[in-house]
Amino acid sequence: MIEVRDLHMHFGGIRAVDGASLSIAEGSITGLIGPNGAGKTTLFNVVAGHYAPTSGQVLLDGQDITGLPPHELFGRGLLRTFQIAHEFSTLTVRENLMMVPAGQSGEGLWDAWFRYGKVKAEERAIRAKADEVIEFLEISRVADELAGNLSGGQKKLLELGRTMMVDAKIVFLDEVGAGVNRTLLNTIGDAILRLNRERGYTFCMIEHDMDFIGRLCDPVIVMAEGRVLTEGTVDAVKSDERVIEAYLGTGLKNKPGMGA
User: Fold this and answer.
1) Where is each ABC transporter domain found (predicted)?
2) What is the pTM (predicted TM-score) of this model?
């Protein structure tokens, strides 16, 4: 589904991504791990259109999407979430979801004034879709809560819900577990698995919680110094000497589940 070919992203003399090549298979939940500074988020930003790469290529379903802006990629079903959730804090959870679909008739002055029936019918359909997402994610109790009042984990669920408001093909999740308590993290994990199995979503996720990665991801891709170091099952990469060496100085051997 996604193929990254010899990707480079340089910032002056800093080679944040330095010749990375990888593939993300349709229907997979692929983990992307590596020490801080490995280039993971920069690679996400290039694939999702936030940066044009210095060189290299990104393909989606065989089509070159290198350097396309995020709104064009959004239209092609490629979405990305952020480590810090980007909600509309003064809108409710339901209203946040209803804001997602592009090209709504009510956004145009002509339709808003002269095609009121069409606008209302479309709004009802979008609201019904939002309610379906709310039920799927089991967040009905906060549906009418202002998004700014949500906990960090609830905001991550809302971001996941926003990807469900359009026909997403592949979703890039940037540290969906960061700052989330274990109970909500399990809920988020359940939702990701259901979206993958029941609705055919493809995911690629950056994550530092190896238990979470182990529960969800196969394969796992390891980056270090801007390049892909290795790829395999979570057990295989955890026992790979190159991976252990790449993490030295960041306490990998002392992390739960990462020791020898």
Assistant:
1) 2-250
2) 0.83
The H-assigned helical ranges of 164-238 are: 182-199, 210-216, 234-238
pLDDT 10s digits, 169-188: 999 999 888 888 888 899 99
In angstroms, rounded to a whole number, what is the distance separating the alpha carbons of residues 50 and 68?
Answer: 9
Residues 152 and 166: their CA atoms lie apart, in Å, by: 23
Contact by Cβ (8 Å): 193, 19: no
Q: Answer yes or no: do 40 and 61 share one domain.
A: yes
> Would residue 19 count as lying in a domain?
yes
The Cα 112–Cα 241 span in angstroms is 62
Nearest to 156 by CA among 134, 136, 183, 185: 185
3 state DSSP class of 245 = helix
Full domain range(s) for residue 143: 88-149
Query: Is residue 157 included in any domain, yes or no?
Result: no
Query: For 119-150, how does the pLDDT look when each residue is reduced to its tens digit (9 = 90+)?
Result: 678 888 899 999 999 999 989 999 999 999 99
Split into its structural domains, the chain has a count of 2
- Tally of CB atoms within 10 A around 62: 7
Domain holding 45: CATH number?
3.40.50.300
